[in-house]
Each structure stands twice: as C-alpha cells, then as structure tokens.
Amino acid sequence: MLTLRRGLAASRALRRFSTKPHLTPPTSLSEGEKLIYYKLVDKFSPTELAVQDISGGCGDFYAIKIASGAFKGLSTLNQHRLVTRVLKEEIEGIHGLQVKTIPPPS
C-alpha cells in the first residue's frame, strides 16, 4: 500500500513521465497503477501495456502485461529482470508482482 509519503512522491513522478503517442492509458487507473504504467511506458515504449492492482484496491499486489521490442532476443527471466529493475522502488512497498512479458514476433 502506498503511504502518504510514497503517494506524494508518486504524484510528482507521474508529472515527470511523458506518455508515448501510440499508447493511451486507461482512465480508471489508481495512483499506484499510473506510476507503474508511466514508468514502463517511459522505459520500454510498449506496444501493449496493462497494469492492474489485483489486491482489491489496497496496492499490495499488481499484475503487469507488457509487450515491447526491448525484450527481443532475451529469455523470459531476463525480460522480467528488466521490468523489475525499472520498478525497484515500487516493488519495495508491495507484497507481490505478477509480470507477463511479450517480445516482438521473430
């Protein structure tokens, strides 16, 4: 769960990130989902991205599905490592993370 301090930091971080023109975030994202969403957009320029709080809304467990050319030629393990490195700060404050990465077609 994002604490007030983390919530304020998340709000500031959201303003730093720019959305890529080809990917529009859902309007129903929570603050925690938005922070993760924009960090991943900024780093990976994904062709598909879904971020969902699957903890019932408390921000303790997230599911991420991301498709990106950045994963080309990498093992699934290394794709997941890339994602978790980008989200290192966010992962420290949650209980679980489910990641599904999709590399581009060969």
Automatic annotation (TrEMBL):
InterPro entries (UniProt xref): BolA, BolA-like_sf, Mt_Fe-S_assembly_factor
UniProt xrefs under SUPFAM superfamilies: BolA-like
Organism, scientific name: Rhizopogon vesiculosus
Species classification: Eukaryota, Fungi, Dikarya, Basidiomycota, Agaricomycotina
Protein name: Bola-like protein
GO cellular component: a single term: mitochondrial matrix
Source organism, top-level taxon: Eukaryota
Family assignment from sequence similarity: Belongs to the BolA/IbaG family.
Gene3D superfamilies reported for this sequence: BolA-like
